Amino acid sequence: MSNEKNTELAAKQQAYQQFVKSREPKRPILANCIRAFIAGGIICTIGQFFQWFYMTYFNFTEITAGNPTAASMIILSSLLTSLGIYDHLAQWAGAGTIVPVTGFANTITSAAIEHRSEGYVLGVGGNMFKIAGPVITFGVFSAFVVAVIKLLVQRLGGF
Amino acid sequence: MLLGQQSWAFKNKPRIISTGVVGGPFEARGALADDFDILHDDIWLGQESFEKAEKKLLEDACEKAIQKSGKTKNEINFFFSGDLMNQIISSSFTARTLCIPYIGIFGACSTSMAGLALAAYLVETGGARYVLTAASSHNSSVNKQYRYPTEYGAQNPPTAQWTVTGAGAALVGLEGNGPFIIGATIGRVVDLGISDPFNMGAAMAPAAVDTIEAHFLDFQIDPSHYDLIATGDLGQVGHRIAADLLTERGIQIQQEKFTDCGLLIYKDSQQVGAGASGCACSAVVTYGHLLNRMNRGELKRILVVATGALLSPLSYQQKETIPCIAHAVAIERGD
Fold first, then answer.
1. pLDDT per residue as tens digits for the range B26-66
2. β-strands B15-23, B38-39: how paired?
3. What is the CATH number of domain B14-173?
4. Hey, which residues 18-47 in chain A have their CB within 8 Å of chain B?
5. Which of B331, B272, B328, B324 is nearest to B108 (CA)?
6. Superfamily of structural domain B180-332
């Protein structure tokens, strides 16, 4: 009996979902976009400052300054995460704090802090990439696919 | 005794002899801070992990309830408790500390009233002289298990709710001058196909409505019987839906008589999304705030309908919808 598809219930569920939609507050998409633009812009400006700093005061070129700049941003993000500030910024900024490298650092730091109570190996080691893991997996795989396509196009006499 | 299809009417009038209500720092800044027995200013409670902190909250609440009653642990026959952790560890570990014969219960955020109903039933039928019942939740341990790490920067939608850090315990027996437990209605699992764990209020509202309707039908009464009907943790979204669904079914509850524990506990300035949630939500608001209001004579008879979303992180990832439940307990002022 439980395997039979209950069409009456399905219809009731659909009607209820429509009913709920009309009563739940919508995500403020426009406001979220503007906030993300402002917050993301500020983060990139800070990154730009670090790049300028490393190029001006140390012997870095525009290309080589990328590494210390990213490292500085990651340290800054991890610091704000461990002080319990980053998640509050993120509630306001949304995608603005998730998309830059600071967001990626936040996923790893927050998971590492969270699972410290289960020990360094199974806790921190096993869970650090819990949220960042899929990004790395699919990022590496996408890079591989793109590289294969590029090689094929080159072999076939393309650009 | 059984009344109608799914309710118990308690003729011997078991009483809530004493309660213990404990909260965390965020609750201390909330709207009901005065109604707590103990408020902790440290989210860790001096423990090494959030799970241990939650256990400490529950232990504190139970010990406070026992201490206020003037009884000793040995006099209490049974202990019913539940929480949101996997394998309800907070409750079982508290039972280890208390050494009172124990049955762990899980009803998600409806646990508080499930426990109170069972405790009242045991005392009513002579199955026990004293029963302690409790429920707890901790914002960070719940986030860790059900959502993301505490410090992870994800933006919550406006329908999301804030899990209460706290624990509430009640000691039930036939003596004393505390409020009477006059009846209870055990709810059915209702699932109307909501699968968004950030919209629990909407998922749970039909369960609350189902139980409220069954309660009035079984007891042959109408909403005017109560001075206040409080749902557990539906929040703004769910509470509004529940009110609309009740009207649709021909049950008219005056707006000022119909409230939600999840809307009472925090101040508007605390920005908790659609409201509060968690096992502790209905437990601390009922055992603290609502019983205090009854003791002050502001309320004579109330119905608390604790609502629970019976999902797990696994069921959500496997794209299951959220089954929900609600249990109602009617409480009347003592002499």
1. 999 999 999 999 999 999 999 999 999 999 999 999 999 99
2. parallel
3. 3.40.47.40
4. 19-20, 23-28, 32
5. B324
6. Stage V sporulation protein AD (3.40.47.40)
